[in-house]
């Protein structure tokens, strides 16, 4: 009896020792993971952007590296420099070019050179607000400063919002440039990183890990192509409208719309001043037409994003749509790429799980499971005889 008690006590002590040791290891690992997250969390958006840029540029990097005799470091450096030039050049050009039109608008307001056309008499017949709109429009056509002074308190929040948008545009551009530089380092070590990612994917899911990794890459490529395509579409439509309306600096503003679209700031910083210029320099039909054009540029990405992003993917459009919208709401610009990737992988995992369950419950397999071994063997013998 005493021997059995000693055995049980020894087993309990060994269990307690193992439990304590495992708990300590788990605590240390968890603390290191948390500490790592705290350290890299401020750079989370840039890391996501750098991964996206690296994945999008990898086909070009692969071709250039092969042309250079598998010199990956040189190829990554050339692509990084070219990408920086493509971003810094238009941004600098845009910043310098926009200053003069803004100065011109301010000088025109001070000198009274900016004239607002008189309002059509038909506006008076509009219900409820027609008379007030006509009176204010007429005041603006005769004394623009007085008209602006009346709405200056209401315009202050709008001005603060536009200034905030401008600051965010500058900060977003800087983050994007840093992400491009970081993506160059990722490209330089692309082969080692791919080996490690494939090994990690197989470690997580030996059967489907690499497939999900390929799906994530395909989703990022689709989103990247969609962002570029939408930005070009916005720049072309906006540039055509501004060219037809003879907007000053239309070429520079078109480039600005393209760059702001690529870095996911949005064209509102350009659209708002252009609409203001239209209503102070064009006739009413021209101002309405340019306003519709610029508002279409501003909001077309909200409508077309899910359809363009889902092109070429097996994931359904509603899943991509939810991923894009939910990702942006949850994680900002980085969520534009993270959301669709996460939901696409989850969709594929769920689809595979459901398909496996359906396949295991088909009538033939269900009958095979329920049939006794003798019946199965006899049916196989009969099939062989036939």
Automatic annotation (TrEMBL):
Signal peptide: none annotated. Residues 363-373 have a biased composition (Low complexity). It is found in: Cell membrane. InterPro entries: AI-2E-like (IPR002549). The keyword Coiled coil does not apply. The keyword Transmembrane helix applies. Residues 375-386 have a biased composition (Polar residues). It holds the Pfam family AI-2E_transport. Residues 361-386 are annotated as: Disordered. It comes from the Bacteria. It is a multi-pass membrane protein. Keywords: Cell membrane, Membrane, Transmembrane, Transmembrane helix, Transport. PANTHER family: TRANSMEMBRANE PROTEIN, TRANSPORT PROTEIN YDIK-RELATED. Belongs to the autoinducer-2 exporter (AI-2E) (TC 2.A.86) family. This is AI-2E family transporter. It comes from Methylocystis iwaonis. The lineage of its organism: Bacteria, Pseudomonadati, Pseudomonadota, Alphaproteobacteria, Hyphomicrobiales.
């Amino acid at each position: 009896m005493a021997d059995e008690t000693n055995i049980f006590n020894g087993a309990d002590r060994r269990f307690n020792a193992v439990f304590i040791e495992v708990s300590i290891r788990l605590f240390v690992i968890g603390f290191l993971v948390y500490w790592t997250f705290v350290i890299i969390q401020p750079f989370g958006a840039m890391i996501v952007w750098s991964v996206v840029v690296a994945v999008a540029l990898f086909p070009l990097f692969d071709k250039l590296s092969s042309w250079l005799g598998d010199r990956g470091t040189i190829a990554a450096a050339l692509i990084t420099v070219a990408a920086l030039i493509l971003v810094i050049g238009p941004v600098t050009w845009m910043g310098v070019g926009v200053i003069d039109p803004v100065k011109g608008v301010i000088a025109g307001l001070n000198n009274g050179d900016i004239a607002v056309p008189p309002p059509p008499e038909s506006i008076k017949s509009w219900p409820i607000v027609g008379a007030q709109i006509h009176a204010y429009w007429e005041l603006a056509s005769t004394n623009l400063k007085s008209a602006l002074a009346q709405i200056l308190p209401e315009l202050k929040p709008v001005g603060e919002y536009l200034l905030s948008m401008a600051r965010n545009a500058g900060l977003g551009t800087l983050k994007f440039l840093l992400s491009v530089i970081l993506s160059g380092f990722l490209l330089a070590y692309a082969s080692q990183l791919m080996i490690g990612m494939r090994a990690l994917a197989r470690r997580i899911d030996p059967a489907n890990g690499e497939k999900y990794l390929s799906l994530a890459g395909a989703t990022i490529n689709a989103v990247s192509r969609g962002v570029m395509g939408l930005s070009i579409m916005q720049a072309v439509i906006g540039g055509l409208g501004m060219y037809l309306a003879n907007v000053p600096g239309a070429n520079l503003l078109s480039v600005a719309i393209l760059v702001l679209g690529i870095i996911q700031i949005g064209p509102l910083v350009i659209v708002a001043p252009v609409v203001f210029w239209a209503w102070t320099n064009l006739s009413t039909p021209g101002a309405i037409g340019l306003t519709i054009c610029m508002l279409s540029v501003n909001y077309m990405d909200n409508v077309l994003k899910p359809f363009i992003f889902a092109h070429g993917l097996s994931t359904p459009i509603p899943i991509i749509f939810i991923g894009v919208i939910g990702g942006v709401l949850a994680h900002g610009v980085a969520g534009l790429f993270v959301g669709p990737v996460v939901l696409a992988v989850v969709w594929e995992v769920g689809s595979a799980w459901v398909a496996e369950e359906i396949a295991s419950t088909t009538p033939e397999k269900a009958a095979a499971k329920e049939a006794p071994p003798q019946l199965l063997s006899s049916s196989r013998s009969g099939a062989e005889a036939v």
